[in-house]
Amino acid sequence: MTLKFLVLKAIAVLVAVQLVNAAPLERRATTGEHSTQTLPAGTPQQHGLATNWTVTGYPSTVAVSRLSSSNNGVAVTSAVVSTLQDFARLASTAYCSVGSAGGQLTCNSYCRNFPNTIVVKTFSISATATIGFIARNDGKKAIYVAYRGSTNINNFIHDSHFFHSKYPPVPGANVHTGFLESFQDARSIVYPTVVEQMNNHPGYTLYMVGHSLGGALTVLQALDFYQNAGYTSKNMVIYTYGEPRVGDPTFSTYVDSLKLPFYRTVNRNDIVPHLPPESFGYKHHASEYWIEDSAGTVVNCVIDEDSTCSNSVVPFTSIAAHRLYWNVHMSISAC
């Protein structure tokens, strides 16, 4: 073999590796997971999911009513619901200007639920539109990290590829490429700042929150803190709202194995938690907290991809349900 041939062969191998590492999964969803229902002809949809189905207009055959008799759904106490609502407000504030480092957390009316909270640092990465803040409340011995969701969720919903990349900490695991890149861009700010705060304030608890795509970043950063800073359920709690699927079944199994306190809240027929579709090779981690009705009733679904929880309303999903959790506006309209 000539040297030229060997060089060309090596280049071909490297190109093939790059394509594998960032290839889109090939299968395409048609009717939505865990459902035998089909959408009426002419219904606006993406990936087999309705984009604007009303939250009160489920067909009678949709299995929402099965939840009460399901062995998988566990009733949630009013105290837990109140906590979920409080952190939904904190997640909402990430869409707003929250003030300058060293000053009080100030934004909209939702900030009143977090008085005497000091802004430690804000961050905005233009390349990936990754925005959020880090704050501290000495009275509550709490450190907060909040990631903003996308201001144009339609771009994500209409993505036809859902590229994935290898997740380096876990052999064989893959995660959404865009989520991984956004997490990596913000990590150089978030990780050292939080570690410094936690080291300087022993006994404090780290609370991580995020809505929509911000929920996905929250998951990846929480795992980073577990892997590299040693944070566990003793000093870290994670709240996400309308979180999309982050990775594949291997990734999901890894997340579940850590026994970290994940509160993955889904509002009624919110479309985003059903993306990327399972048929693209993605799977949610536990534990789902489903707001199942207009009264705000919450049920904890303790297994992955529970067919009697939010998956039961597929494919009758809605973008509108993604923007309002209880009475909390999850968008820049809250500012």
Task: Using the coordinates shown, work out and report the CATH topology.
Answer: Rossmann fold
In DSSP terms (H or I, runs of 4 or more residues), the helix count works out at: 6
Mean pLDDT: 84
Specify the CATH homologous superfamily: Alpha/Beta hydrolase fold, catalytic domain
Q: Helix content range of the residues, please? A: 25-40%
Radius of gyration: 20 Å
What is the topology, as strand order, of the major beta sheet? 3-13-12-11-10-9-6-5-4
Beta-strand percent range: 15-25%
- What is the ordering of alpha helices and beta strands? HEEEHEEEHEEHEHEHEEEEE
Written description of the protein model:
By secondary structure, this protein is an alpha/beta fold. It is built from 6 helices and 15 strands. A 9-stranded mixed β-sheet has the order 3-13-12-11-10-9-6-5-4, with helices on both faces. A two-stranded antiparallel ribbon has the order 1-2. A two-stranded antiparallel sheet has the order 7-8. A hairpin with a 2-residue loop joins strand 1 (45-46) and strand 2. Helix 4 (177-200) packs across helix 5. The chain is globular and about 55 Å long.
Secondary structure layout:
Layout: H1 3-21, E1 45-46, E2 49-50, E3 73-75, H2 78-93, E4 118-125, E5 130-137, E6 142-147, H3 153-157, E7 164-166, E8 174-176, H4 177-200, E9 205-211, H5 213-229, E10 236-241, H6 249-257, E11 262-267, E12 288-291, E13 298-301, E14 324-325, E15 328-329
Parallel strand pairs: 6-9, 9-10, 10-11, 11-12
Antiparallel strand pairs: 1-2, 3-13, 4-5, 5-6, 7-8, 12-13, 14-15
Helix pairs in contact: 4-5
